[in-house]
Amino acid sequence: MSPGIEAVRTLAKIGYRFTVNGEKIKAKYHGPGEPDPDTVRPLLETVKEHKPDVLEYLSRPTPPERILTCFECDHFRPAVSSPNPTQAFGRCEKRKKGRYGCATACEAALEAKS
Questions:
Q1: Kind and range of the H or E element at 107?
Q2: d(CA 10, CA 97)
Q3: What is the β-pairing status of strands 24-29 and 76-78?
Q4: 39 in helix, strand or coil?
Q5: By the number of CB atoms within 10 A of the CB, which of 9, 71, 79, 86 ranks highest?
Q6: By the 8 A CB rule, do 48 and 8 touch?
Q7: Where are the chain's structural domains?
Q8: Are 69 and 101 in contact, with CB atoms under 8 Å apart?
Q9: pLDDT of 21-54, one tens digit each?
Q10: What is the DSSP secondary-structure string of 66-87?
Q11: Is the pLDDT of residue 62 over 80?
Q12: What do you get for the CA distance between the two ends of the chain, in Å?
């Protein structure tokens, strides 16, 4: 993967959002607090140095985001007698409460799958 694309992905994790307008790339910070300039400055320079790769990467259509469900989470225990465990009621061992299998999974499961 291009260093420019890696820089864009790192900046996005920090809280930056990118827009492309023709040949221009705009980065705007939407995260909490203020970004650390010593971390951000070199990353933005890398984006500039690899502008053609970054433009192509940012211009690609994004696929719809797949939502992880409780049934796919290791913390979920579906009801044993259920004919459809992917949607059935069960128990989340992390949250210590009942959940449906088709509910959105907890943050710990989302982080583990990424």
A1: helix 107-113
A2: 35
A3: unpaired
A4: helix
A5: 71
A6: no
A7: 3-59, 70-113
A8: yes
A9: 999 999 999 988 899 999 999 999 999 999 999 9
A10: PPPBGGGSTTEEE-TT-S-TTT
A11: no
A12: 17
HSE (side-chain half, CA atoms, 13 Å) at 93: 9
The C-alpha angle with vertex 20 and arms to 14 and 24, in degrees rounded to 5, equals 105
% of the chain residues with pLDDT over 90: 44
Q: For residues 4 and 20, what is the distance between their CA atoms, to the nearest angstrom?
A: 15
- Token duo for residue 102: 């088709």
pLDDT at 104 over 90: no
Decide: 18 and 12 in contact? Cβ < 8 Å: yes
Place of tokens 């943050």: 107
Distances (CA, A) of 87 to 26, 53, 66, 76: 42, 42, 17, 12
Sign of CA dihedral 60, 12, 43, 33: positive
Q: Over the stretch 66-99, which tens digit does the pLDDT of each residue have?
A: 778 888 888 888 887 777 878 888 888 888 889 8
Degrees, nearest 5: CA angle 15-17-20? 160
